[in-house]
Amino acid sequence: MSTTEGTADPQAWFDRWVDTYDTDRRVLIPCFDEFYGTAAEVASLGRTGAVRVLDLGAGTGLLSGVLAGALPDASFVLLDEAPAMLERAAERLAPLGDRVTTVVADLRDDLPEGPFDVVASALAIHHLDDAGKADLYARAAAVLAPGGVLVNAEQVAGPTPGIDQHFRDRWREHCRARGATEEVLAAADARMAIDLPASVPDQLEMLQRAGLADVACVFQSWRFAVIAGWRPAA
Ligand SMILES: C[S@@+](CC[C@H](N)C(=O)[O-])C[C@H]1O[C@@H](n2cnc3c(N)ncnc32)[C@H](O)[C@@H]1O
Hints:
Structural class: alpha/beta
Number of domains: 1
Largest sheet: 8 strands, mixed
Shape: globular
Distance between the termini: 36 Å
Strand order of the largest sheet: 1-4-3-2-5-6-8-7
CATH superfamily: Vaccinia Virus protein VP39
CATH class: Alpha Beta
Helix content: 25-40%
Number of strands: 8
CATH topology: Rossmann fold
Bound molecules: S-adenosylmethionine
Strand content: 15-25%
């Protein structure tokens, strides 16, 4: 059985969408398989066995579920401010038993004690402003084991206003082509009203400043990018 730590936030923004969140993921993330699949590929590169994973902004456990497929003996700490989302995650990952811990906390709080072999995140860090992102990347790098990897599958801003507008327009068209209704798009717009995405170049610089090496964007499809960096082994 999984364990839960932390205190519930009764106002958590995402809990209002807990019943519909998973339903439209493949429609709203048109590159779903490559996006989550690349994050899992990065997380599992050269790793087997009892790997320790921290999932930041884990929500309903979508990313951890994919990671568990690539790292079948891993243990997971899932952190999120939204308790109802984490309850869904605990249900999703129930087959992993006591290898799963959920922590109700803010991304700005102290992180769970490391070391972790993998610090992963999907579609969550863009809820912090740029100072908050850089601070979180530095704290995440600090809880990584030497040789550990930080991987963030993220919704990013375009590096210029013109490219950013293309990112937004392409996303809407790709979602419609996959069958997104105007109602589904309106709900996504409401969820994204608080987003503060940063560009890939800006975030790669943040990862470098956090002390990570081999920092790179390993996948990008318009506004969806997977960025990664490794904590030096020595
Ligand atoms: C779009 S969901 C992504 C969930 C999951 N990682 C996935 O890929 O489906 C964003 C998640 O980040 C969480 N989140 C946003 N801001 C947060 C913060 N400041 N502290 C903790 N969690 C936060 C939300 O509660 C939500 O569950």
